[in-house]
Amino acid sequence: xxxxxxxxxxxxxxxxxxxxxxxxxxxxxxxxxxxxxxxxxxxxxxxxxxxxxxxxxxxxxxxxxxxxxxxxxxxxxxxxxxxxxxxxxxxxxxxxxxxxxxxxxxxxxxxxxxxxxxxxxxxxxxxxxxxxxxxxxxxxxxxxxxxxxxxxxxxxxxxxxxxxxxxxxxxxxxxxxxxxxxxxxxxxxxxxxxxxxxxxxxxxxxxxxxxxxxxxxxxxxxxxxxxxxxxxxxxxxxxxxxxxxxxxxxxxxxxxxxxxxxxxxxxxxxxxxxxxxxxxxxxxxxxxxxxxxxxxxxxxxxxxxxxxxxxxxxxxxxxxxxxxxxxxxxxxxxxxxxxxxxxxxxxxxxxxxxxxxxxxxxxxxxxxxxxxxxxxxxxxxxxxxxxxxxxxxxxxxxxxxxxxxxxxxxxxxxxxxxxxxxxxxxxx
Length: 428
Ligand SMILES: Cc1cc2nc3c(=O)[nH]c(=O)nc-3n(C[C@H](O)[C@H](O)[C@H](O)COP(=O)(O)OP(=O)(O)OC[C@H]3O[C@@H](n4cnc5c(N)ncnc54)[C@H](O)[C@@H]3O)c2cc1C
Known about the structure:
Elements (H helix, E strand, L loop, with lengths): L12 E5 L3 H12 L3 E5 L10 H4 L3 E2 L12 H10 L5 E3 L4 H14 L3 H15 L2 H11 L6 E2 L3 E5 L2 H6 L1 H9 L5 E3 L1 H7 L9 E5 L3 E3 L2 H14 L3 E3 L3 E7 L2 E7 L2 E4 L2 E4 L6 H6 L7 E10 L10 E3 L4 E5 L4 E9 L8 H14 L12 E10 L6 E4 L6 E5 L5 H16 L17
Parallel strand pairs: 1-2, 1-14, 2-10, 4-18, 6-16, 14-21
Antiparallel strand pairs: 3-9, 5-9, 6-8, 7-8, 11-12, 12-13, 15-18, 15-19, 16-17, 17-18, 20-21
The site of flavin-adenine dinucleotide has 40 residues, from helix 1, helix 2, strand 15, strand 19 and helix 13.
């Protein structure tokens, strides 16, 4: 999938490192700004190696709460003690990740902190589904974006009320929702376990029906518009007289005037070479996908007591979640994905109890996560021509469309459309 840039568009040349959602949205916006674009990635865009492939597809403009919250440390022992719980740690990795974990706990330790994070994330996520729809239309794949809202489901109204702080923060940011009684939820979601008796519908949000196909199509669209796709791994930068001269790759140096670091969970070493020591972990998650399911969600739903998302994708019923703290390279623990399958069986009782293994697909993904839940977007310390665009954690698909716009504006030396101070890579 390689195409040459036409000489007429010869201008500043940017190398985008990484062809996930963030890199491709950055590349497409750089093309809009009239730049020459080369995208570098060792993998095939849309492939299973990237976090952008197997996520739950949520384009959730309301996902403004950071993963850490006041008092979360009290819940951690319980989560860890539960073999079917949402959190696991490979203990050998703990010493390496301890500084990140401490920052994570501090980031959510007070309401003031999470309110400030939520306000910043809202600026990044606002209009996410609509921005994706516009991009998908341009790429000829509008069928992959659905603007039909997203659901949160609780066992009862009482459980919803126990979550009041988060919903209050959302309401104060102008996020609207509809509350669904047990009967309304049942009418809307007839396949869902009737033990769930309360729903919250977010009409402004949407979802992607097939994230892997979306990424592959965005890459094809970028190439059709003149971007060059190079199969290589970037290892660093060459500077000449203090200016960026090239991106170094295992396939040779690529001369350029600008670069974007969008290598997902593997961005840390590149950021360090650009002068910024960032706190970034591969926060591992899993999905189980049931092919041709007998029961399914009509609207993608977050199951609040299980901390999973269930989405009917083009390929099947995908149940995604889990936080596994382990190194990027550690072997998958497929038991974590089997937990997702078992939750699917509980949520949708019409699924057969003896579901054959041939009807289930498992996937491990690595969220590029900062401890405070805010991505790094903006110029690097070493060079204003190296732009950081990584660390989008749990919301990287949804927030990719605006991140791409911001990167395009920075590359074109325009004022970014939102305040980037909260997203500075220099905050660590
Ligand atoms: C289980 C799970 C569920 C999720 N659900 C959602 C959801 O519903 N909604 C949502 O918004 N987000 C969700 N996320 C998070 C989302 O998937 C990520 O935040 C997002 O995909 C990150 O995109 P990215 O482009 O930064 O990284 P990636 O998609 O991982 O892409 C990074 C790319 O960089 C390449 N790369 C790495 N190193 C180099 C190098 N040195 N040189 C060149 N290329 C390199 C990689 O090969 C890769 O292709 C979920 C994540 C998981 C794990």
